[in-house]
Prior knowledge:
Neuraminidase, about 40% strand, single chain, 5-stranded antiparallel β-sheet
Amino acid sequence: MKVSPGRLTGTLLLLAFAAGCATTAPPSKLVKPVWPDPPQKARIQFVTGLRSKEDLPQKKSFGSKFQDAAFGSSDIANVYQPSGLAISDDDKRLYVADWVRGYLVVFDFEQNATRVIGGPDSGQPLSSPFSVALDASENVYAVEKEDKVVRVYDRSGKFLRNITTLGTEPFERPTGLAIDKKRDLLYIADSSHVSSLNHRIFVFTTGGKFVRFIGTRGNIDGAFNVPTFLHVDDDGKLYVSDSLNFRIQIFDADGKFLAKFGQQGDAPGYFSKIKGVAKDTFGNVYVVDAGMSGVTLFNSKFEALLIFGGYSAKPGYFQGPTAIAIDKSNRIYVADNLSARINVYQLLQTKPEESFEESEGPKK
């Protein structure tokens, strides 16, 4: 189901469904979309879209501008079909896995520049990176779904090592990555295949030493049906997009099942095509749903509060959202695979004690 930009994506969910299905006109080119719609208090605001270095503030000399106009820019650092995101601890660099381009694109907000990791001249090129994660030293981990390996580079792009499995327990179809920086743990989701029972999470040290498995194929608590995107919060809790069980599962740092939320459906709080998952500094959980072409924001009790986005080619909306990353200032980055860009939003909630429910009145 594709949700068009309108009342559903612009209103606190419970109020939206009480109010009915009226739609609002799409925003003009000069107005950046916000959610929920006015006159309600804005909580999410679209900031910009990122495709290449041209989307960053530019301070070019006349000579460099003339050269680009005459000969074209030689920079290949642009995104085409982004599928994975990671943000540096200082919020200054965004790493993007582009499985069609076959490399990682780095947006350097401090230098107002872009560059490539894992390109054809890297010494160990990538071919189809699906996800990306960063360790405490900002070494870069990229999962190769087709080659069934995780390749590791330093921050400058120098190849360091491969992480793979040997013997009778290989990766079948590795997809999602997440790193617990405090405990030096690397989580790798193996989405596997329809006929396989090995739908599970591999746990390694960041140096590549195998630690344990989490889960197997199934629909009971702690089991998976096509696990894909992963997120580790500051407490070491692992959030897993359990895609074909249509839920998010949560585990502690030892791999013990803690909680779950969601089920299949097209109503608020339900899921259709789960993709990325992340948390902000207030403890809210964000889940990307490609079926709804939006991102659902849940509070710490896993109650659905807001959907932002919606299906459209207009700036601020989505055609095929995938991964999500949130920095320490609650700037939200969402990869839009089919629009060939990263949508950037800002959470406008600024006080930890201020909940959505308190500011908008009682639930209905």
